[in-house]
Amino acid sequence: MLPGAGGAHTCCRSQAHTCYRRLSQALSGVMLLPRFLLTALMLWLLDYPCIRRRLLRPPAAARSPEDPPLCVSDGNRLCTVESLKAVWYGQKLDWLKSAHVGGVAPNTEVVTLEGPKRCRILDFSDGHRPLVVNFGSCS
């Protein structure tokens, strides 16, 4: 091996990792785009007062004379840049999470109460008995 060749190999590996990471981010963005556009369309449609009134108005049988009149204004918009950013961020988190309904549970690292010993969640499972994890608070 030539002197200094290890540094070039490490550089190529780093560039390949960066390229892979960017490609996976672009692919996940393409996969999320239809869901995001559908949500943005729904928020945009809900910004129209006539649609909001129709969706929010209770049926005539459920209305009582004591109820105040329904007031739908243009002051509280749903389709804003901030709401679209929040929708994109939430859908991205949902897409990239490691646990999915019906899938295999992730075997994450936990700290025991007895001390700073680290172990995995599935180390506490016992045969075919279900493992219950309680994320409660004692404060």
Structure description:
The chain is mainly α and 139 residues long. It has a domain at 8-58 and 77-97. Helix content is 47%, strand content 4%. The chain has a two-stranded antiparallel sheet. Strand 1 and strand 2 form a beta hairpin. It is flat and about 65 Å long. The termini are far apart.
What distinguishing features does this structure have?
mainly alpha, 3 helices, Iodothyronine_deiodinase, selenocysteine, thyroxine 5'-deiodinase activity, oxidoreductase
Summarize the SSE layout with pairings:
Blueprint: H1 5-46, H2 49-56, H3 81-96, E1 109-111, E2 118-120
Antiparallel strand pairs: 1-2
Helix content: 40-55%
Q: Which value, in Å, is the CA radius of gyration?
A: 26 Å
By DSSP, the count of extended strands is 2
What is the H/E string?
HHHEE
The SS-based structural class is mainly alpha
Strand arrangement across the biggest beta sheet: 1-2
**Percent in strands:** under 5%
Low-confidence stretches: none
Query: Which geometry do the CA atoms define?
Result: flat
Mean pLDDT: 77
Q: What is the terminal-to-terminal distance?
A: 60 Å
Biggest beta sheet summary = 2 strands, antiparallel
Helices, by number, come to: 3
Organism: Polypedates teraiensis (Terai tree frog)
Keywords: Oxidoreductase, Selenocysteine, Thyroid hormones biosynthesis
InterPro entries: Iodothyronine_deiodinase
GO molecular function, one term: thyroxine 5'-deiodinase activity
